[in-house]
Design brief:
The strands form 3 sheets. A 7-stranded antiparallel beta sheet has the order 11-17-16-15-14-13-12, covered by helices on one side. It is an alpha+beta fold and 334 residues long. The protein is elongated and about 75 Å long. The longest helix has 21 residues, at 275-295. It has helices at 153-161, 166-169, 275-295, 315-327; strands at residues 16-21, 30-34, 37-43, 49-53, 67-69, 72-74, 81-83, 88-90, 107-113, 116-120, 140-149, 186-190, 193-203, 214-224, 227-234, 246-256, 259-268. Helices cover 14% and strands 34% of the residues.
């Protein structure tokens, strides 16, 4: 990182956040938003992604409106060119001018993983959110999204951890009004967040491969402030594929305190069904969630447990709120 711009760091800036599908960063620069800031993404000639502040240090024009020339990005206003290090390498108005070290763009760390490009705003020894199923060759990987949602990232994570809404929001799919009771389950802290185990739900259609209603066991993991993973193990008798398993990661880009971009990374033991069938199921489920999420008030997640009511069925979400408060998260919470 580096450049003439400086910001007071927040704890959220030390974590890695997804900002765009990796396949979208090709020839032209790509404008994205993260934590209330405008960024530009581009690839150099070797395919390495770069993430910078979307602002030329010369006169403030958006670099995302410019062009990529091999290992350089060119500003659309005066044609200044910057190399992968962020250093200005060429000023067309002064062909013989050698730009000093101070003439550089503000850079952020960027990595590619899970089908997405991730950005870290403030340097810190922080790992990308884990998704163990990504390395399992027995599972097929698909990326679903993005979805732009008018609510905070923590509200979306909490909804992902919640089973008590299945019979109402996902009636006929993940739940039924005749089977809404939530059995006791276990929640434990982990180095990255929390893990909820022994979570059980009766579901009319638990997955695209379900052949009938089944009791499904869930394991939830919060792997970063705005990321989580669930693993489903349905009754084998209610699934068309032998040995079927399913793992779904939720990856959220916090665009603004009350605006988020959402992706789901699917890891499925199904190499036969067409992509459309598998993605359609996940799309249907989230389209049921989205209007409810956007209706919640406040849109920022309250970390004071006295601000909203709680029961034993909410123990995972309550633990998540305590975890965010312990970390000192301020973006998307109140």
């Amino acid at each position: 990182m580096g450049g003439p711009f400086s910001f007071e760091p927040m704890i959220e800036e030390t974590f890695w956040h997804p900002v765009v599908r990796a396949t979208e960063v090709v020839g032209a620069p790509v404008a994205v938003r993260l934590l209330g800031r405008d960024l530009v993404l581009w690839r150099d000639s070797s395919g390495v992604p770069h993430a910078w502040l979307d602002q030329c240090p010369h006169r403030g024009a958006r670099l995302s409106l410019g062009q990529v020339h091999g290992d350089r990005i060119e500003c659309p206003y005066h044609g200044w060119q910057f190399g992968a290090s962020g250093q200005c390498t060429h000023v067309p108005a002064l062909p013989g001018f050698v730009p000093p070290a101070s003439h550089c763009a503000h850079r952020y760390e960027a990595r590619e993983a899970h089908g997405l490009v991730w950005v870290q705003v403030a340097q810190a020894p922080m790992a990308l959110p884990a998704f163990a199923a990504e390395a399992d060759d027995r599972l097929r990987k698909l990326l679903c999204g993005p979805y732009d949602v008018a609510t905070s990232a923590p509200r979306i994570v909490e909804n992902f951890l919640d089973m008590a809404h299945f019979g109402f929001v996902h009636e006929g799919w993940l739940g039924a009004r005749s089977a809404t009771a939530i059995d006791d389950y276990r929640v434990e802290a982990t180095p990255d967040g929390l893990r909820a185990t022994q979570c059980k739900a009766w579901q009319p259609q638990s997955s695209p491969n379900a052949t009938g209603p089944a009791q499904v066991e869930y394991t939830y993991e919060v792997t970063a402030p705005y990321s989580a993973v669930l693993t489903k193990v349905p009754d084998p008798a209610a699934v068309a594929l032998a040995g079927y398993s399913e793992s779904i990661a939720l990856f959220i880009c916090p665009l603004a305190p009350e605006a988020s971009r959402v992706w789901f990374r699917l890891a499925l033991a199904d190499f036969d069904s067409p992509d459309d069938k598998l993605l359609s199921f996940q799309h249907t489920i989230f389209m049921q969630d989205q209007p409810v999420l956007e209706s919640q008030t406040p849109r920022r997640l309250p970390l004071d447990l006295r601000a909203e009511l709680h029961t034993a069925a909410d123990k995972a979400s309550s633990a998540y709120r305590r975890h965010l408060k312990h970390l000192g998260i301020t973006f998307g919470v109140c």
